[in-house]
Amino acid sequence: MKTLIQLENVSKTIKGKKIIDSLNFTIREGEVFGFLGPNGAGKTTTIRMIVGLMKMSEGDILISGHSIRDEFKEAIHHIGAIVENPEMYKFLSGYDNLKQYARMQKNVSRERIDEVVKLVGLDDRIHDKVKTYSLGMRQRLGIAQSLLHSPKVLILDEPTNGLDPAGIKEIRQYIRDLAEKEGMAVIVSSHLLSEMEMMCDRIGILQKGKMIDVQSVKGWLAEGVDMYSIEVDDLEAATMYLKSLFPDVAPENSKGRLIFEMDKEQIPILIRLFAGKGISIYEVKKVSKSLEERFLDITEKREVV
Ligand SMILES: Nc1ncnc2c1ncn2[C@@H]1O[C@H](COP(=O)(O)OP(=O)(O)O)[C@@H](O)[C@H]1O
Ligand SMILES: [Mg+2]
């Protein structure tokens, strides 16, 4: 899979304040990547730098291998984006809006206009006036407009903001289709975890301008990341021994139990080791955590640091 977006140590400082702090990540073709974070986390600022609306203070961004700093035109050519609400002529049809927009770009054929209309599922309504469109349909027209020049990368800042549940579902489906069928790399942002987990392949959690965690949604939901709870006779000894065996594991003590994250395969090994060390085990059980709980774990832990 080809890397289409690459951020290298991207930072932004405004009036002496670091708003974005050393972002490093890559996004491949066919992948939907989500920026998740509360208001003020830096989602829009990061997106504005990726689409070239704002200069970065440090680092570089490569789009399909082209540097935004050194090869701006080549890099930007590969991007389609909606950052602020797209401007539409409400008294023209969706189709005439696209034609109008296509005129401002190089080499957009009539066939391409029809193609993007199909892609966003507006075939039925494209000749109706935009003022009769629902917010979701306007959003889709905006996406169609940003796709006219056949970009490889699509970037949407809070695309589901203000939409009703049906509209959200539609947008989600079109975004997944663009990644899966067209092989585009897509960045979306949101402050809602529930929405991101349905739309994204990976989620990067932004907090105070830092990317504090990147998780694959599949991995996140997979069994491999289940938590285990063990009841033992000597909690202190068990905690120390566990930490010495698995330095990466951060066990928590709760109600006389040891709670930690571990691969399923390692549990029988751990039980044998504990037994060999003379630690008595009364109970071992798997405690599943929802994505929501894990997300809170991650954000709360970092808040303290
Ligand atoms: N032009 C600017 N000048 C000063 N501060 C800014 C500017 N743009 C954004 N910020 C600050 O940067 C932080 C991140 O903002 P933003 O990227 O809009 O967050 P988000 O989109 O995640 O809500 C906020 O604290 C915001 O006040
Ligand atoms: Mg924003």
Automatic annotation (TrEMBL):
GO molecular function: ATP binding; ATP hydrolysis activity
Keywords, alphabetical: ATP-binding, Nucleotide-binding, Transport
Pfam families: ABC_tran
Superkingdom of this protein's organism: Bacteria
Domain ABC transporter: 5-233
InterPro entries (UniProt xref): AAA+_ATPase, ABC_transporter-like_ATP-bd, ABC_transporter-like_CS, P-loop_NTPase
Family: Belongs to the ABC transporter superfamily.
Protein name: Bacitracin ABC transporter ATP-binding protein
